[in-house]
Amino acid sequence: MKLEILNLKKTFGNKEVLKGINFTFESGKIYGLLGRNGAGKTTFFNCLNDDIKAEEGEFNITYEDHTRPLSIEDIGYVLSTPTVPEFLTGREFLKFFLEINEGKLKEVKEIDEYFDFMKIDKEDRDKLLKDYSHGMKNKMQMLINIIANPNILLLDEPLTSLDVVVAEEMKDMLRSIKENHIIIFSTHIMDLALSLCDEIVILKGGNLTLIDDLLKGKELQQKILEILKEEE
Amino acid sequence: MIHTFITSFRLRNTYKVNTFIYALKSVPGLRKLLPDKLYQNRGLKIIGNIISILLEIVNIFLGKFLYIFLMIFSMMSIYKTNPSATFLHILIFLTIIGALMNTYMFNPTKDKYYAMFIMRMDAKKYALSDYFYAILKVIIGFLPFTLLFGLLTGVNIWHCLLIPLFVASAKISIAAYNLYLYNEKGIVINENNPVKHVWLLILIFLALAYGLPALNVIVPPIVSPIIMILTILISIVAIKYIFKFNKYREMYKKVLTGVTVNVTTSANQIAKDTVLKQISIDKKLTSNKKGFAYFNDLFIKRHSKLLLKSAKKVAMISAIVIGIVILIITMNQELKQEINNIIMTYLPYFVFIMYLINRGESITRAMFMNSDHSMLTYAFYRKPTSILNLFKERLKSIILINLLPASIIGIGLSLILYASGGTDNNLNYLIIFISIIAMSIFFSVHHLVIYYLLQPYNINSETKNTTYTIVNILTYVVCYYMIDLRLPTFYFGLATIVFACFYSVISLLLIYRLAPKTFKIRV
Q1: Chain B residue closest to A73 (CA)?
Q2: Which of A100-114, A149-163, B25-39, B429-443 has the lowest mean pLDDT?
Q3: Domain ranges in chain B?
Q4: A2-229 belongs to which CATH class?
Q5: B279 and A87 in contact by Cβ < 8 A?
Q6: What pLDDT sits at residue B259?
Q7: What ranges do the domains of chain A cover?
Q8: Which ipTM score applies to this complex?
Q9: Nearest CA in chain A to B372
Q10: What is the pTM of this model?
Q11: Cα–Cα distance for residue pair B147/B87, rounded to 1 Å
């Protein structure tokens, strides 16, 4: 499966933020999306997620034998500020989610099994989400997105506010699901991008550039910095 | 100090002007025409400045006018005591309340935060220039109206001239006392959050202001000027203290980092926190429903403070008022005919009342902040079928909750009509009842529909949609206008019912077609 982006253009006022992006993401890979502040990473995600309308552009999902347009159900979007319904308990949120998606999910498990998988403590499962810590809310959000099993996961700085243990758990979890998924991971932390991602993509001057994956270690870092620093 | 004042004035003005341009840009249709460079446009800046200065002038005078007119002058007629002495009596007590509640110095505003902590201006200089500018505005703002209304009630002209100085002095004295409290005991005052004993004081002074004249007791005319002059003398000491006080920076750090000014989102954060607090933590509240019905049911139950409880309260108050009216009718035969006439012509008035008691707007805000704000980021929640399903559930609950007070009012009005002598046309009973129900349903539908069609909030729960604001204001204006309308109940009631049905059907069709596209978080 591939995500094909054709000629994606988005302007705000007179500012062209995305200048006709043509790019193809492939499943089985975690893509690290790097870009300077204001480069348009969030705009790019928002366009994919249909939160804002792009002026031009087409998104397609292509399989070996056919192609179809992208639909919102293909996408799971995990924001850096966790978003969960504050008035429900963790268990209730999960129950609601499972009921809504009854019949669409494969291998539905018991609610507690999901909590176990996400390492959410027993005593927290029946607390209102408004009383969850930042990291736990993040886990809940991630859990929902993983169960929904969308073809594409967009992650906007999802690990930066987590403690080291949880962050490692999340990384392992992402690696474990990357088969059959396209994971696009936006971050400002180069180490994180290099340690987790299979491919590095740079958003610069309104275009996406894939970094040559023959480079390794220091060389790769140098190259990325060079590209990011270049004048437009 | 003058320099500090000018800098802070310009700072405040700059963001006032920018707010003005921002508001201008968010008017639908204008957004595309106006470029971002607008913020650099000199002409527009000048217009913005003029508007901002005009607003400042309105701000200086309007509040004082309303205060003296409504709180003092218009109250005079109900007392039998000497008007001029009563005028001064009420004014003195209200001034003390005002000084306690409205110190200016302890009002945690964004202006202060920006100037002292972000722009790092000298805290003492800034605080003093800001404070004495506010005090100057008090004196200038009060003068014309104490003269006007004072002279109208027969107050000696010298006393009229003294009043603005007295008001300012009272504020200065209390402010100095609060500074003293901070200096000696470390107590931080936040005037928007008075502590219990301040509330008690306020209540006592309120009772003294309005209660004593009713008992024919007022401050003797000779004593009032003495109180005023004494206060002015005290304020001289107070001013000295205010100038001597040296801990402005650390004090404001405490005043401003409290609840009211949040570095990033300020007012919105507070609004959000308040709405979050509405969530009831009672775990026993559960639901046997499934899917969206389950989701909505829990939402309604966990927000009962906002929804069911408040509807019950309104219903109860309505029942009591109706009971009292019926009691009055049975006791006083003269009023009977009059009340009968009122019921037969005042139905439009109830549009406004039904508007006021409808919880739609606060419910939709809570829906956004506590639920949709986060849920709309999930794809499964944004599917057209999901949006419509949840809409249906919500509509049902909102209508039902609002029907409780509505049916009480509807039945009550019919009962009053019956008790006050009845009507030639028995259909009137039915029309009154159904039209009140129709109004209630109309407002329930209306609030939810504009929320779904215009979803005005962005991820930070700020309203980003001017159309939404305009629609809300228009709704209010139309309902308010109804107050003055006198129409035969039969025809107006019938028209209301037809309109409500028509509106509901049309808007539900619109929802069905458009909501899947319009119901998303604004970016």
Answers
A1: B379
A2: B25-39
A3: 2-272, 285-518
A4: alpha beta
A5: yes
A6: 42
A7: 2-229
A8: 0.81
A9: A85
A10: 0.68
A11: 12
